Amino acid sequence: xxxxxxxxxxxxxxxxxLPVIFGILYFKKFKDTYWKYFIYYLGFIFIAGALHNWIIxxxxxxxxxxxxxxxxxxxxxxxxxxxxxxxxxxxxxxQKKLYWIFSILYLLSFAFxxxxxxxxxxxxxxxxxxxxxxxxxxxxxxxxxQIKSDDIIKFKDNMMFYVNLGVCMLxxxxxxxxxxxxxxxxNMDIYMNYYTIFLIVNHLMYLLFTAAIIWGKPNTY
Length: 221
What we know:
Layout: H1 2-25, H2 36-59, H3 65-92, H4 96-116, H5 126-148, H6 159-172, H7 175-179, H8 181-184, H9 188-215
Helix pairs in contact: 1-2, 1-9, 2-3, 3-4, 3-5, 4-5, 5-6, 6-9
């Protein structure tokens, strides 16, 4: 398990790079659609991951582990959630009000967390739980939309089919891991098992994103 864990840790960044490479190769079919921003987003995630792994952890380690965690928790992860709110609610579901409601509530959760963080030590990231909860609602609505339409039959061409499956697996499937992060740390065997599953699902999500770029058609919703 330890060997697998180390391999997954080191290979994750390269799996993040994979859809970026194919996004560049297939960019022509996305350049006139809003899906081009999906390519930009994937590029941002890779650059942020590389910055964290190759620069912050190596050259800013004197600032402590919290500096790298703050970079991820208060910069990278919020952009992840806000982007997916936009992709799901604003674009795919055409629910612009829902996009603004979820985005504002998610951002307000940071202020709320600052007030109660001393009383919820069992929750690793209150903001992550809130963000993933809203994203879970959007994932459900997206599945309902696909089931009720003929798009589910042509799932191979449906960009959102791949994206929705990947997002569901990672953000929703591993929500308990982050919700009870502090409790899991008390048992390192259970913690390592959950963390390994999280890394595996992470890899699978970027493979699904790559599949969306290769096989998906940007005019599908």
